[in-house]
């Protein structure tokens, strides 16, 4: 396995996760700013590693596997951390849907790969939009405090709810796209 720049960025994203967890539970001054910055850095590395992999022709099988895994772990752990502070019913329901969808689609992708139909579950614009909404929503929720009188926490919550709707929509689209292959099996 050759570690290229995009793969190193993905590994960097995985290494940030324990730091986010530690900062979340530490009683630090300005922990909201630290969490916001760490999460934004991790989210930016997601965009950057994909951009570099495509433009430097450094797409690898390992990187293609690891990148979505890192994203799912980052988003799932961050949502669970936020849920531990704000376990309201709507947010709880959104987190359950997002995490369950990630597990279901990962399983579907694995299955489709085994039956030689992985092209039926390629990442779509809808999936990328969902991820962007999640990344911004989580960033705002980590920030927590009003910014220039704007309640960024609740804007983040709204973005997570919108991402949840796209999560359901994209999952349905993945199943529709793979239905004919699933029926054969």
Write the CATH architecture name: Up-down Bundle
CATH topology: Four Helix Bundle (Hemerythrin (Met), subunit A)
Gyration radius, in Å: 17 Å
Kindly report how far apart the N and C termini lie: 33 Å
Overall pLDDT confidence: 92
What would CATH call the class? Answer: Mainly Alpha
Write down the domain tally: 1
Describe this structure in words.
It is a single chain. With 185 residues, this protein is mainly alpha-helical. The chain has a single domain (5-180), classed as Four Helix Bundle (Hemerythrin (Met), subunit A), CATH 1.20.120. 81% of the residues lie in helices and 0% in strands. The longest helix has 33 residues, at 152-184.
What tags apply to this protein structure?
185 residues; mainly alpha; Four Helix Bundle (Hemerythrin (Met), subunit A)
Short overview:
This protein is an all-alpha fold.
SSE inventory with pairings:
Layout: H1 5-25, H2 31-55, H3 61-85, H4 89-114, H5 125-143, H6 152-184
Helix pairs in contact: 1-2, 1-3, 2-5, 3-4, 3-5, 4-6, 5-6
